[in-house]
Amino acid sequence: MKRRLALWARIRSMQLVYAIASVRPVQPKVILATSHIPAIRGNLAAIGDEIQRRDSTIAVTRLIHARESGLFGVLRALVNDCQAIYHLATAVLFITDSHYVPIYVIKRRPGTAIVQVWHACGAIKKIGYSVLGKSFGTDSVTADAIRIHSNYDLCLAGSQAAVVQYMDAFRQPASLFRTDLGIPRTDVLIAEAGRDALIAAIRQRYAIPARRRVVLYAPTFRGARMTKAKYPGNLDLAAMAEALGKDHVILLRLHPAIRAGLELDPSLAGFVIDVSDWPEINELMLVSDVLVTDYSSVVFEFALLGRPMAFFAPDTAEYDDERGFYFDYRTGVPGPVFETTAELAAYLRAGEFDLDRVRAFATTWFEVADGHASERFFDQVVVPALEGRPITGHVPR
Fold this sequence. Notes:
Helix content: 25-40%
Order of helices and strands: HEHEHEHEHEHEHHEHEEHEHEHHEHHH
Largest sheet: 6 strands, parallel
Radius of gyration: 21 Å
Shape: globular
Number of domains: 2
Oligomer: single chain
Strand order of the largest sheet: 2-1-3-4-5-6
Strand content: 5-15%
Number of helices: 16
């Protein structure tokens, strides 16, 4: 009951602020908002960069409202709610890449548009309404009080396969989704301009040794809440170093929701390089020969490179209980699944990779991936919104 009352008070306060803010005229500004991680990255960053490149006079506001625990987190959330509600009432275009509560509690005023670009290109683990009844994500109290993932004018998706997932997660019709624009965060993986300079900058920044196979290790977080995200810690990096240290190097990328850094044993120096402070993981993919992950959505983008992947997942049963999967995990991911460090190291040492499986995965999950998604988003979403034209989802053929 206490939780329900607190949620009711939060909803009513946001609705009051929205009513007050709606007295002001709608302004020709674009809002980029996230509550996923404490940074504007991925699709939002790509869209923001494209707006700046095409027309630097367009007003762009960035809202970073990552969730925090404790009393300070509650107070910060109240301030964030008011800020978000003001912009929802006064911005012609509001773009988010995450579950964003203020969007779901208002009755939209005319002349405003809301677009969901999500922070991934598809999903292995369940999200949104799909996790009701699980220990992670939206609970029944919230779902009863708020129609989450509502009020969108359109949502981006990489393919019809992804649309099926998002329809279940958002409880929205297929007509709301567009798969013809592409996913902005994938542009860096395909576009040739600036690629060599970017690769050189990353290799220099982290002193990545030449003539070694570069393994990007990017596991997702563990924990029932984003505010308590932690590193899984189940891969034996010392054993990996013993087996692969002579001709491999591991780039360790922690999930952005993990606030505490990882202290690496000094004996791993030169073999394990912590690259978690590099802003965009897709840029790190460009210098990587192999991806090792578990349940992370980074597999979708990496598949566009046509490079091998391996999956280290000794806790699949536990993770299935906590989150659940949209497809059979072992047969659905584009690479073999290992439960021991020794097996994974042996696979990487052998170097016999099935790239047909990777290419088939990319074909399934991307209908458009040509390096121009950000341009199309600007032309077909940002410009129409600023001109007062309606934005709609994809009309099925």
